[in-house]
Write a structure and sequence with these properties.
Number of helices: 6
Order of helices and strands: HHHHHH
Number of strands: 0
Strand content: under 5%
Helix content: over 70%
Shape: globular
Radius of gyration: 19 Å
Largest sheet: none
Number of domains: 1
Length: 115
């Protein structure tokens, strides 16, 4: 179950919307493990929303909430490192840095030409 949950979380992080494809498998695992499906599904949905917030802000508070929420999704400490949460912000930050650096250089260039 642990490896499956880590895979589901990583899939949703890398391909938003893929959780819908995993729901039937998750239901089966929950039945086998005698875990309440609705509760784990809601916890996962909250985790995915936190991932989106973290992607936008990169705030450490949201990162800590993500880690705590992953535990509510039955992901044990030893498997937390397998979740690519840090990559979310790093990829988004790199993307933002690349897109904004061009406009900053243009502004700097324009200001230099004005002098």
């Amino acid at each position: 179950m642990q490896l499956f949950l880590v895979a589901v979380i990583n899939d949703e992080i890398s391909k938003p919307g893929s959780f819908k494809e995993s729901i039937n498998h998750l239901k089966s695992y929950c039945r086998e493990e005698k875990i309440e499906f609705n509760q784990i599904a809601e916890n996962l949905k909250l985790l995915f929303r936190l991932c989106e917030d973290y992607k936008r802000s990169g705030e450490s508070l949201i990162y800590n909430c993500l880690r705590a929420q992953a535990k509510r999704c039955l992901v044990e400490d030893k498997n937390l490192q397998d979740i690519h949460i840090k990559k979310i912000y790093t990829a988004q930050k790199d993307k933002n840095d690349n897109s904004s650096s061009g406009s900053i250089q243009t502004l700097v260039g324009a200001n230099i030409l004005d002098f």
